[in-house]
């Protein structure tokens, strides 16, 4: 059992944690936060908000100490858009809502998934994969709503059912779900 002198209380959740498992907040010495609460706060603030608060050079020493593998939670491609408003409207029937908007950047969110778009005058289409519970059900909903760009649903020999959704800028989003 760890002795009381080696424990620190998280200033957010109040749980006692070993001193090596909490971080002292730089602006409030003597106040600590556990990793779980730090991740919760980062998700609430959004990655762009968090990154604006950090100078990139201050991240390098942390990455060099071998913590990079613990910091990665997801990888998100940035897709191009010639009209961010049109892009947001196109992805609304898929279930994506506006999360952040900047002059030349748009972040859409649906549950735990994010789509990022950068405003470009000319676009080189790209793609990504969205994993959903039922690709056929979503495909039918998009057809009923009259959303253009939804290709045919196919069953793949490696256990997925998917269709390709092509947005107005030519980005190809593969929407897939496991076969039952």
Average of per-residue pLDDT values: 83
- Please indicate the percent range of residues in DSSP E strands (runs of 2 or more): 25-35%
What fold name goes in the CATH topology slot of the largest domain? 2,3-Dihydroxybiphenyl 1,2-Dioxygenase, domain 1
Our Rg estimate from Cα atoms comes to 21 Å
Could you state the CATH homologous superfamily of the largest domain?
A: 2,3-Dihydroxybiphenyl 1,2-Dioxygenase, domain 1
Number of helices: 5
Shape: elongated
Instruction: Determine and state the CATH class of the largest domain.
Output: Alpha Beta
- Find the structural class using helix and strand composition: alpha+beta
Write the H/E string, N to C: EEEEHHHEHEEEEHEEE
What does this structure look like?
The chain has a 4-stranded mixed β-sheet, covered by helices on one side. It folds into 2 domains: 4-71, no CATH class; 78-178, 2,3-Dihydroxybiphenyl 1,2-Dioxygenase, domain 1. Helices cover 29% and strands 32% of the residues. It contains 5 helices and 12 strands. The radius of gyration is 21 Å and the shape is elongated. A hairpin with a 2-residue loop joins β7 (105-110) and β8. The chain starts with 6 loop residues before the first strand and ends with a strand. The mean pLDDT is 83. 18% of the residues are buried. With 180 residues, the chain is of the alpha+beta class.
